[in-house]
Amino acid sequence: MSRPTRQTLAPASATSLRRFPGNSQHRPPHASAPFRKAAAALLLVAAVALPCAVLYRAVVLNSPPPVQVGWGFRPWQEQGTLRAPVMVPEEDGDLDAVAAGDMEREYPKLEQVLQEASMDNKTIILTTLNAAWASPGSVIDLFIDSFRRGIRTNSLLKHLVIIAFDRTAYRRCTEIHPYCFALVTDDVDFSQEKRFLTAGYLELMWKRLDFLRLVLEKGYSFIFSDADVMWFRNPFPYLYPDGDFQSACDHYVGNATDLRNIANGGFNYVKSNNQSIEFYKFWHSSRLRYPGYHDQDVFNFIKHDPYVTEIGLTIKFLSTTYFGGICEPSRNLNKVCTMHANCCIGLQSKLHDLRILMEDWRDYMSMPPGLKILGALSWRVPQNCSLSL
Ligand SMILES: *[C@@H]1O[C@H](CO)[C@@H](O)[C@H](O)[C@H]1NC(C)=O
Ligand SMILES: *[C@@H]1O[C@H](CO)[C@@H](O)[C@H](O)[C@H]1NC(C)=O
Ligand SMILES: *[C@@H]1O[C@H](CO)[C@@H](O)[C@H](O)[C@H]1NC(C)=O
Ligand SMILES: *[C@@H]1O[C@H](CO)[C@@H](O)[C@H](O)[C@H]1NC(C)=O
């Protein structure tokens, strides 16, 4: 595969190197280009998603449609389609796991993993893993590799707990990482692949949210990160000291407290306190009001709810300058903390673009300091990632 050549000398204007190679070479170096592209794909996406969701409601849930929600599908909300299908082999007895319903009974096991991985201030890093993302060379390997190649991120690996959704993922985790925990759900049929917005997929997303609530109740604050988020710099210095719930964004409007920011559920920091615990309970129970939606969409609905103010939860949105993604890249490699393969459909496309991200980062790291400062390098993604189906 030929790789687009790239200048590394400082351009007259920083934007002149903001290229989007790939399918269409040298697209205009305009910040909103991905959005315009996304908008073009919107109708197609909606055309597919709408009937699916309607069918889901009618057949699976057999419940009335939500009162309030319009079909305002936004491309950046569609990134949830990127979360991989989940494949769960039949269970056996030796899995070091708990069923979600037994979480409390299995308290000591979970407690032990959290304790071992915790920082002094009871903070941990969590990610989730399924079979599709667990195979060698797949997403989880890129995730861990990014910590090793990032700036002051390698030492964070000893605070990372990988939550496995199935036996294959759990086994792989134990081969590559010291802190693994299996979250197995016993009341969902896992005998087949789970696809986005199927009952099983949604069930799993909500189980995960309930699990995170339990982690908060145990007194642990956490960064939750999807495994398709590459960690290039230690994010902790860039979090707000006064935010209970801080979320990366698919679209950032330039103001950390503006609720018009579109949160992305793939990266967030949550402080363990009464406010966050109550909020997680409220969020989880809100699934009943918005059947057929996953946790990220429901967050973007309920962030406006007066009850959130009543709880006293402080929400902060993290700038895409530091916490970027393919929807809205972090443009400056001198500032980037994380890059998320959101706005990307299909695992192969995702892997392709994640590998490009890692190559770009390696190129950046090997540049002399003077060139780094000039900001001569920019991401070559998106290439295969897109919202079009
Ligand atoms: C917790 O400790 C880590 C490691 O010392 C630090 O980076 C992080 O900022 C601390 N978190 C909070 C919320 O103080
Ligand atoms: C940011 O948003 C909040 C909430 O919408 C608003 O009160 C505040 O004035 C905004 N700040 C700036 C600098 O625009
Ligand atoms: C939470 O609230 C309870 C009672 O309302 C209080 O006793 C406790 O100290 C609070 N915990 C925190 C962490 O604020
Ligand atoms: C990525 O896109 C290129 C060009 O469209 C195509 O040739 C290649 O097969 C794609 N790779 C993957 C992994 O999808």
UniProtKB/TrEMBL annotation:
InterPro entries: At1g28695/At4g15970-like, Nucl-diP-sugar_transferase, Nucleotide-diphossugar_trans
EC number(s) per entry: 2.4.2.-
Keywords attached to this entry: Cell wall biogenesis/degradation, Glycosyltransferase, Golgi apparatus, Membrane, Signal-anchor, Transferase, Transmembrane, Transmembrane helix
Domain Nucleotide-diphospho-sugar transferase: 156-354
UniProt entry tagged with the keyword Glycosyltransferase: yes
SUPFAM superfamilies: Nucleotide-diphospho-sugar transferases
Membrane topology: Single-pass type II membrane protein
Gene Ontology CC: Golgi membrane
Bias-annotated ranges (Polar residues): 1-26
Coiled-coil positions: none
Subcellular compartments: Golgi apparatus membrane
Membrane-spanning residues: 38-59
Main location: Golgi
Family in the record: Belongs to the glycosyltransferase 77 family.
PANTHER family: EXPRESSED PROTEIN-RELATED, GLYCOSYLTRANSFERASE-RELATED
Protein name: Glycosyltransferase
Organism: Brachypodium distachyon (Purple false brome)
The organism's taxonomic lineage, starting at the top: Eukaryota, Viridiplantae, Streptophyta, Embryophyta, Tracheophyta
